[in-house]
Amino acid sequence: MQVPSPSTREAASMYGTVVAIFLVILVATLQSSAPPENPFPYQVPLDPEGSLELSWNVSDAQKTVHFQLLVQELKAGVLFGMSDRGELENADLVVLWTDGDRTYFGDAWSDQRGQIHLDSRQDYQLLRARRTPEGLSLIFKRPFDTCDPKDYLIEDGTVHLVYGVLEEPFRTLEAINTSGLQTGLQRVQLLKPSIPIPALPVDTHTMEIRTPDILIPGQLTTYWCHITELPDGFSRHHIVMYEPIVTKGNEALVHHMEVFQCAAQFETFPQFSGPCDSKMKPGRLNYCRHVLAAWALGAKAFYYPEEAGLAFGGHGSSRFLRLEVHYHNPLKIQGRRDSSGIRLHYTATLRRFDAGIMELGLVYSPVMAIPPRETAFVLTGYCTDKCTQLALPPLGIHIFASQLHTHLTGRKVVTVLVRDGREMEIVNRDDHYSPHFQEIRMLKKMVSVHPGDVLVTSCTYNTEDRELATVGGFGILEEMCVNYVHYYPQTQLELCKSTVDPGFLREYFHLVNRFNGEEVCTCPQASVPEQFATVPWNSFNRDVLRALYGFAPISMHCNKSSAVRFQGEWNRQPLPEIISKLEEPTSHCPASQDQSPSSHTVVNIGGGKG
């Protein structure tokens, strides 16, 4: 059944660029035929109830993302899109809405007040609208880069997806304001790397690390910790793949999961299953920090390269594992039980190389601090040429995956490989990083690190809502800047991080006193956080601290897994010299854009493009 195009007046009011669909809710005429295989391999629930589900596929060749939005119970419409940090203001949107007679689909954007406007360029292309047994299915596509200043540039890293539900008809699109809608956000990595899946060994076995049918607390956020142990006599194996197990019906509540191995220095760990912040949690569980597996919403199975596996079990390895599950329950749903977890695939036939995990970035130290009310303050940590020359094998290592990590004020993270003073390539970068969405990500291509190379990790922070300086440390209100890189072959080097030389920071506090009337206590009994807390944060003190971090010598932590540093002098080391930086990607967009709208398209809802 085809629908007549809108009237001239309606088309003009919509800039003539809207796809008109008359959605006949009498589903008898809307038969669906499932494709022979799933063309949308990635999917996430958008809302907490799971009534909006997004699936997608990525074409690197066409630089296009194909989306399928499944709406279980369509009311008067739905909006979907992307924004910098998940705001509904200044968002790039696609909207399905009805005026009570007809239903329309259009590319739109919201201004800083949340008012929606139809985009003068229609870069979201509707391919199909179909009623299925599961609900209304909308299939559409959009290029990574539309060259439209109103559109979001889809990049590698985290993408903040936004959605809204329209409860009633609107006569025009411009009558919609996001402030009056039921809205939300979901974070994903849209541009998944296209990597061939390695074959699993014939002797692969599986082990499920799951929560024991727990009752999910009816609160916004819960981190659940569960201790389990490997069987007696479990010998050394290689993990070659792992995948999520999410209890059916809880897909919108299970946000991310991690499996940690406990420290081998303790023979036993107490059994515990409960909230990670519980006063009943044994303190020894804090020694279960070695990551074996990590999964977040939207991620698929994680495969190790064919030539490497992650060792666990056997002599010198703890039998105890800690599963941590993050439940995100904004509707505070009560009475939901859960047995989610991670399935490890492992083999007794050890591969050629052990995979390792190395920490890059900044030492967890209060000497690295961010002043309050900063929008984009950058701190940088180094893995120096001296450390890699000493600790890496002659043929180097190969990084194949990475997990970026900060606490609450982190906004961007990037690690760059430097060789002979020249930036060579980016190891991992996330310009829309969120501390609420951390996963181990496969790299599009392996990065080889040679002895003598430098790895530079920079984190950008936003402290606009804070009145005091934010110092480095383990607390959630303190900060971190870390990249956990997954590589092979495993070496003794487990931590390659830096911090500013403490002596130069003391000179900073003395300088602040000289210009601010002895406001900072520099007495020996005052801790670094206490000293930072008394700094008057005028522009001079901010600029001097920023400059200090940019030129002062560093203290290097070039550490083995035993937490002992490699032999050598590591204090007051000069900053690595970088004589050549990578060029920022250049835009391939033409200098001027033709803003004239294209003609509208009439779509047959029953199947395919009309």
Structural notes for this entry:
This protein has 610 residues and is mainly beta. It contains 5 helices and 37 strands. The strands form 8 sheets. Strands 1, 5, 6, 7, 8, 11 and 12 form a 7-stranded antiparallel sheet that branches. Strands 13, 16, 20, 21, 24 and 25 form a 6-stranded mixed sheet that branches. Helix 3 runs antiparallel to helix 5 (539-551). The longest helix is centred in the C-terminal third of the chain and has 15 residues, at 502-516. It is globular and about 75 Å long. The termini are close together. The model is unreliable at 1-36 and 598-610 (pLDDT under 50).
Strand content: 35-45%
Tell me the number of strands. 37
Using the alpha-carbon principal axes, give the shape.
Answer: globular
Uncertain segments are: 1-36, 598-610
Give the termini separation.
10 Å
Structural class: mainly beta
Strand and helix layout:
Layout: H1 8-13, E1 19-21, E2 42-45, E3 52-59, E4 64-71, E5 77-83, E6 92-98, E7 103-110, E8 116-118, E9 125-132, E10 135-143, E11 158-166, E12 182-189, E13 205-210, E14 214-215, E15 221-229, E16 237-245, E17 254-262, E18 273-275, E19 288-296, E20 302-303, E21 308-312, E22 320-328, E23 337-338, E24 341-347, E25 353-354, E26 356-362, E27 369-370, E28 377-383, H2 385-391, E29 397-405, E30 410-419, E31 422-430, E32 441-449, E33 454-461, E34 470-471, E35 482-488, E36 493-500, H3 502-516, H4 528-533, H5 539-551, E37 554-560
Parallel strand pairs: 21-25, 26-36
Antiparallel strand pairs: 1-7, 2-3, 3-4, 4-10, 5-6, 5-11, 6-7, 7-8, 9-10, 11-12, 13-24, 14-23, 15-18, 15-22, 16-20, 16-21, 16-24, 17-19, 17-22, 26-35, 27-34, 28-33, 29-32, 29-35, 30-31, 30-33, 36-37
Helix pairs in contact: 3-5
Family: Belongs to the copper type II ascorbate-dependent monooxygenase family.
Cofactor: Cu(2+)
Keywords: Catecholamine biosynthesis, Copper, Cytoplasmic vesicle, Disulfide bond, Glycoprotein, Membrane, Metal-binding, Monooxygenase, Oxidoreductase, Transmembrane, Transmembrane helix, Vitamin C
